[in-house]
Amino acid sequence: MKDVFLDLISQHQGLIHKICKLYRDGKEDRQDLFQEIVYQLWKSYPQFRQESSVTTWMYRVALNTALSSFRKQKPPVSYTDSLPDTEAGYPEEEGQEEQLFRALKHLKDGEKAIVSLFLEDMSYREMAEILGISENNVGVRINRIKSKLKEIIKELSYGS
Fold first, then answer.
1. Its pTM surpasses 0.70
2. Predicted confidence band at 92 (pLDDT cuts at 50, 70, 90)?
């Protein structure tokens, strides 16, 4: 059982890393979250009945772990946290991936979950199963999030 589990983690560690990058800023925080997700996956592995795909199960556990630990450790927000500038560690010119992840930090937790699944090329059906919402609702939320991200990226790029 241990070897099969370790193979699963090895094969799908990319999805865990995406969740960690989406919900944590610092390298050490991401590493801590990664370890916590793997621990939660290990604890729940004996109950995994393969009624859904492995990635669906892993995403569900990873997102729940990230969200629950995020709520426990969420520091108070100061007004300066929402005002990124070049002196705060955001270079004026950055790669598209980094720009996207910076914009994703401005989304609500549920929106981040949907985006992470969308970026993983999951079907609306799979996303609905993981999130516990209808496929139609997934489509509506994705369209709203896309519009919101366009505005966030525009504001971050032009400072308006």
1. no
2. very low
